[in-house]
Design a protein that fits this description.
Length: 384
């Protein structure tokens, strides 16, 4: 990163009521209790020693692997861990006894891609939430609340119903276009009013409602009854249609996006304290912010194109992880990805068993968990 010659002087941005740093959920808020530990304007530090963080990494990876295996077992037909290992081992070319064809298809073709897709989408949405909260300095930022998910949904529905593309890549391209348009509209509407937290959320709700209305309009104009019902169900978030092709595309885009965002970790630390702090670190503010927003839009659009618009993952997970590992993004982002994967794997499992044999869209459960947290944040900020 190079310094932006157009950046303002290297003075700390004045503290403003409603900023992300004002949130009681922001870890630096605890610095007010022990100001001697952090110099004014200094970037926050990660919690714990490197050794303890390494142990926490290993524990998080083990929890994720155990969650994946346990979730594959959950369903109307019982499946043992040994059978899961035999199915996976045989497809990976390991010297294991193959399963009967029907049981192997149940594990490898239906449950395994579904569980893995839930993990990838959970990681992507959680990291996008952490990045947006830093860039906008808003503890309530989330792809769903800012209308980005609604824009991606509208783009995907337009491609599916009006035939502007075909296949997974076409739907993903439509969702990406819709996400970028919603982002552009959000930034345009906020251009004069600034990034005040309340305005961001209210404007995001307006943008989300606009694209939801466009989605409904396209559905009514171009879809029959069965198509409308299927797409409406999909828009609430469902892993039921997961296939290996979608898992591979979503995983590849998410991995590349995570790498880019992790390389911008120092910039995200600076953005959390304002653009002046970011500029003082030698970061090209406009270019870096544009890269962060485009990568976030791409990751969100791929997730939405795969499973529909699942809200509040990006709101719930980053706040919990910050309390555990601290606000430094070089540590925060990998842990947020792991925690987001575990969170959505178990939420999807809950959606399958809560009202079995009827399956509930996973977005219903994430909303039931996220809305109380959203209200808690508003109440702590004195805005409710």
């Amino acid at each position: 990163m190079t310094a932006d010659p157009t950046a303002p002087p290297l003075a700390e941005e004045p503290y403003r009521q409603g900023d992300f740093r004002d949130s009681p959920l922001h870890p630096t808020a605890r610095g007010k209790e022990s100001p001697s530990k952090t110099a004014p304007g200094a970037l926050p530090t990660a919690h714990g020693s490197p050794l303890s963080r390494t142990a926490l990494y290993l524990l998080a990876v083990l929890v994720l692997l155990a969650s994946l295996a346990a979730s594959v077992r959950i369903g109307t037909s019982e499946v043992g861990y040994g059978e899961i290992w035999r199915s996976v081992g045989s497809h990976l070319g390991l010297p294991v006894e193959p399963l009967p064809r029907l049981l192997d298809s149940l594990i490898w073709d239906l449950r395994a891609p579904r569980v893995l897709l839930a993990a990838v989408v959970g990681a992507a949405l959680a990291v996008c939430g952490a990045v947006l909260q830093s860039v906008t300095r808003n503890a309530l930022a989330d792809p769903y609340l800012l209308g980005v998910s609604s824009g991606a949904s509208a783009g995907a529905v337009v491609v599916v119903l009006l035939g502007f593309g075909a296949g997974t890549l076409g739907v993903t391209g439509g969702a990406f276009t819709g996400a970028l348009l919603s982002f552009a509209l959000l930034m345009l509407l906020l251009h004069r009013s600034g990034l005040d937290s309340t305005r961001i959320v209210l404007t995001g709700v307006v943008v989300g409602q606009l694209f939801s209305a466009l989605t409904s309009l396209v559905l009514i104009a171009a879809g029959d009854a069965d198509t409308t019902r299927a797409i409406t169900y999909w828009l609430l978030g469902s892993m039921a249609s997961a296939r290996w092709e979608g898992v591979v595309i979503c995983a590849a885009v998410t991995a590349i996006g995570l790498l880019v965002l992790w390389l911008c970790a120092a910039a995200l630390d600076g953005f959390a304290f304002g653009t002046d702090t970011a500029a003082s670190l030698g970061i090209g503010v406009r270019a870096t912010r544009a890269v962060l927003l485009v990568v976030t839009a791409l990751m969100t659009s791929v997730a939405v194109a795969s499973v529909g618009a699942i809200g509040f993952v990006g709101l719930i997970v980053p706040h919990g992880v910050r309390f555990l590992v601290g606000p430094r993004h070089r540590v925060l982002l990998p842990f947020t990805a792991l925690a987001g994967a575990v969170f959505l794997v178990w939420t999807d499992a809950l959606s399958r068993v809560a009202f079995a044999p009827q399956e509930v869209p996973v977005g219903v459960f994430t909303a039931l968990l996220g809305v109380p947290l959203f209200l808690l944040v508003l109440r702590k900020r004195g805005e409710l």
